[in-house]
Amino acid sequence: MPLPALVPGVSAPESELRCPPGEGAARASRGIGAARFLRGQRLTGALLNCYVPVASKFTIGAQSALPLLLPSDERPDQAAVRRWLTFAQGSFCTGAAWSGLAYQTLLTQGQQSLSVESGLLDCRCIVSL
Length: 129
Description:
The protein has 129 residues and is an alpha+beta fold. The chain has three helices and five strands, in the order βαββαββα. It has one domain (16-127). The N and C termini lie far apart (42 Å).
């Protein structure tokens, strides 16, 4: 049974979703990113880094997902750079080409969290080195 199109004109069998490179892939990754690609990492104090990779090209299969992250005693900026370098070095999904890593640092306080910092780290400059 085909999945509903996340990007106009793109549909696929349930076991696999292929997205064209560029903007269409970015829109599709937002639609399924939280379930398979959004990852959080507890840091020192009450800080939490959230990461979502930005793909320029990817193929998603039934088992496609990023590994869970272990807590770390690093500062938020150090942890974000470590994740960024990890993404630039390898492909966690077959056929994936990562163009960046979006991150957000949250200060967790009971039931409410405050955003401390957010940004997008470009992987293309590291890949070219």
